[in-house]
Amino acid sequence: MRKIAANYIFPIASKPIKNGYVVVDDNGTVTEIGQLDGECQDTEFYNGILCPGFTNAHCHIELSHLKGLFKEATGMSGFINQINELRSSAEKPERIKALEEQFDQLYSQGVSAMGDISNCDESFDIKSKSPLKTRSFIELFGTLPEEAEEVIESGKELEKKTAEYGINAAITPHSCYTMSPLLLARAAQEGLKSGFLSYHSQESQEEEDLIISGTGALADNYKGRNLPTPPVTGEPALLYFIERLLSFSSKPVQGRIMLVHNVATNQKSIDAALENLAEPFWTICPLSNIFIHRQLPPLDLMRKNNLAICLGTDSLSSNHILSIVEEIKCLHKHFPHIGLDEILTWACLNGAKAIGFENELGSFEVGKRPGIVLIDNIDWEKFQLTEKSRSKRLV
């Protein structure tokens, strides 16, 4: 039994508590939360804030060997070129070592759960052994419609392998521009059998231009490689995805559908998602968006619509570090008016809901085992993290 306290605790399910404490049993299960009343000899007190373990809602841990290799600000077209060139630039042992190091670091810094993209089986072993809970999204690609069923079958084979490791996983579509209309619909249909999808959505204006008018850098990239492009619809890219979902499902489409990035989202897209999707989640990866596009999602518009926002890191091909705390600092810099309590809700509970772990993780509530994270060096006047702030897992 441990009683752990700090200047503030953020239960997430309730308001922050000054001089708050959390009591956990030997298994890390929360048995009590409250406010200190004087000094207690049996209390561990820390300077800083305590929050539940984070949920990194979107990561590509398999790409950890690419740290420091990519040029910034290339846009999506340039990023795709670099992925194609560098993805296999390290041998398998080096790739495994890099992802294991990042996995361990994420857990020690307080990540309790992660929505992770898998294009192969290299992360499965560590996921099966780690206390960090994961939901793996087996991401499919393929622009040729005649290859759609073959791609689906290969995804199912990888999904079978995850069952051998005892980890949560299912097929998911990648994006509008890397898949034929048929494969996009079939992958979503298969993935939703699990109740969960993760989909790269409106990550860039290049993606919007491709779908709306068939023009722009991304369109030129695909045409230059003699690859098929999606149909031109004259509408935002998210509406095209929703149309593919409705090709096999009535509305609202059931399942927790995580729309990732949302840099180019807009009111029309948001309205369509809220009308047609039963449980949409909107994951942002700020540092990755800056790395590739020098842009950020329209968070004030998203907040105005009361969207369920989650926080992710993306990969080390598009980020210098996998750290939820660094993502929060980025949000403080660019959106200083958004309160820390709201951002921590995105970073903890919303992400846990998006990947199905909210009954155990995401908030300090009696009976849950969310982990306890200390964040230090707080600017108490602004109630924000500072450049010196770091996170550390206590439980």
Report the end-to-end length measured between terminal Cα atoms: 11 Å
- The helix tally amounts to 13
Binned strand content:
15-25%
Point out poorly predicted stretches: none
The CATH superfamily title of the domain at 54-322: Metal-dependent hydrolases
Mean pLDDT: 97
Largest sheet: 7 strands, mixed
CATH architecture classification name of the domain at 54-322? Alpha-Beta Barrel
How many individual β-strands? Answer: 17
Radius of gyration: 21 Å
Task: Write the element-wise H/E pattern from the N-terminal end onward.
Answer: EEEEEEHHEHEHEHEHHHEHEHHEHHEEEE
Helical content stands at 25-40%
What is the CATH class designation of the domain at 54-322? Alpha Beta
Structural class: alpha/beta
Q: What spatial form do the alpha-carbon principal axes imply?
A: globular
In the CATH scheme, what's the topology name of the domain at 54-322?
A: TIM Barrel
Describe this structure in words.
This protein is of the alpha/beta class. It has a domain at 54-322: Alpha-Beta Barrel (TIM Barrel). It contains 13 helices and 17 strands. Helix 4 runs parallel beside helix 5 and helix 12 packs across helix 13. The protein is globular and about 70 Å long.
In short:
With 395 residues, the protein is α/β, with parallel strands linked by helices. 36% of the residues lie in helices and 24% in strands.
Which features would summarize this protein structure in a list?
globular; 395 residues; alpha/beta; four-stranded parallel beta sheet; 17 strands; TIM Barrel
How is the topology of this model organized?
Layout: E1 2-9, E2 17-18, E3 20-24, E4 30-35, E5 43-52, E6 54-59, H1 75-86, H2 92-108, E7 111-118, H3 124-129, E8 133-140, H4 148-165, E9 168-173, H5 181-191, E10 196-201, H6 205-213, H7 217-224, H8 237-246, E11 253-261, H9 267-276, E12 277-284, H10 286-293, H11 299-304, E13 309-311, H12 324-334, H13 340-354, E14 372-375, E15 378-379, E16 384-385, E17 391-393
Parallel strand pairs: 1-5, 6-7, 7-8, 8-9, 10-11, 11-12, 12-13
Antiparallel strand pairs: 1-2, 1-3, 3-4, 5-14, 14-17, 15-16
